[in-house]
Structure prediction request, 578 residues.
Amino acid sequence: MGNYHHPEIETMPRADIEALQSARLVEAVERVYNTVPAYRKKMEALGVEPRHIKGIEDLHLLPFITKDDLREEYPYGFLGAPLDDVVRIQSTSGTTGRRVVAFYTQADIDLWEDCCARAIVAAGGTKKDVVQVSYGYGLFTGAAGIAGGAHKMGAMTLPMSSGNTDRQLQFMADLEATIIACTPSYAAYLAESIHEKGMRDQIKLKAGIFGAEAWTEEMRHDIEQSLGIKAYDIYGLTELSGPGVSFECEEQAGMHINEDHFIPEIIDPKTGEVLPKGSKGELVFTAVTKHAFPLLRYRTKDITQLNYEPCACGRTHVRMHKPMGRSDDMMIVKGVNVFPSQIETVLMNQGYPANYQIIVTRVKTSDNIEVQVEMTPEMFSDSLTEVSKKEKELVGALKSMLGIYCDVRLVAPKSITRSEGKAQRVIDKRNLY
Amino acid sequence: MNIQQISVFLENRPGAMAAFTKLLQKNNIDLRALSLAETENFGIVRVITDDPMTTVQVLKDGGYICSLTPVIAVAIEDKPGALVDLLDTMGDAGINLEYTYAFLAKKANSACIAFRVTDNEAASKLLAERGIKTLGQEDLPALFE
Prediction:
């Protein structure tokens, strides 16, 4: 049996969880129908009215929301509360077209932070702990969620943000941080730096909470060994609030979904049909307690499966497997969401041909993305300076589109393999899933 | 007068240059001059041949990206300091060299130097004023007799 932040909710009998979900769902559908015209329209198109939704057994009647829907209705189309009640936004990375802006009332922030507090407590956190938050602060949800959760459960928070490794290690040692929250790749990098600097004896970490990108069990093992900690996975999406939608307990056998706030379903990504319990498919969430950005049946595009077996930790909330793939072509590189189409847009805008290839690798713990572009007569010049300048412009345009640095490699014409007329655009060599 | 240099895009990887020269060999094209500029990822090889149009056609047919670039070429005496006067003349007139390379003619005691400058015309005119003869495409064969 573990420690809980909200024992009565986290260990609630299944029947009670489902009753709570049903009641909250009915209320949420009524509310969303009346406050979000974009969703009301979707319901009307299917002939569904709030009165048809009597409980979670009727969830499948509701229309889905996709990221494209959010894009079409950007920025305020899915706002479910008066702007006067909104106190904050967070946002995903990506272009204006792909960007999602999520809105929060104070109550939305509280419930999000509660979810994160549960995650920290599940990782062994108490008021006595020192939580080092090494996610980037700002529009991204990682830092805001974990820091808020740490405040809620009463630990001292070190708002380090990402980067500046020397400073990270100094604070970690001097203030005796016991829990670190960051991306798994940054954790691996910090671990390496700690060993290089011979600081292992000064580090008091006991646990790490790592999310925002895919990582393997091998990577978990390496980080745990290297830092002498337990490494916990955490999952979330900006669209649903941020990290803390689900989190691992001490059993490290799947992430408990905060089901009092988020109702999960697994669907067939092609047909949209709900799949039987335990099936592998696309994860869909219905947020039943959020007011400012209340997404119902939001398609995450993450492929996973749910485990309803009781967990040894005593929590009754369903566990989701670490995402096993995507039902779209999104990649997460250096913790940032990247779509091949964004790269294609940049290439087109810069006058490059559509013959390109994206190669993603992980060298030690750091992601690297290389965009290979075929040289064209128009781009070519006898001057190295000219060609290098174009190369740099492309690097700059990719950086401003994606928010991360990409290597650019100009290659000979027709050197990018074309198979059956359709080129393989992305080669991900990281073996993440 | 100018010489038409052929500039070719090559990837920076083992065998790229060999494949390029093999194509020239196959088409019996003799190189008069060759210079290579490289970055970590790619290179630009610049060559001078007797018949630039045919060379370009051969390269294009071979799938290479290439272009013709007029460069200024001057034959100078093959002795220490011969280049100094020429470069001083250009430098004093504010003409910037983008790149330059030298090649040896078969004719005794004669070296050639090729220049790519921002303004070919201004540079040619300046050199003519100073009595320095620039080479034309038609001058090449004689240098290699």
Q: What stands out?
A: The domain at 3-69 of chain B is CATH 3.30.2130.10 (VC0802-like). Chain B has two domains: 3-69, 70-143. Helices of chain B lie at 16-26, 52-61, 82-92, 120-129, 140-143. The longest strand of chain B covers residues 66-77.
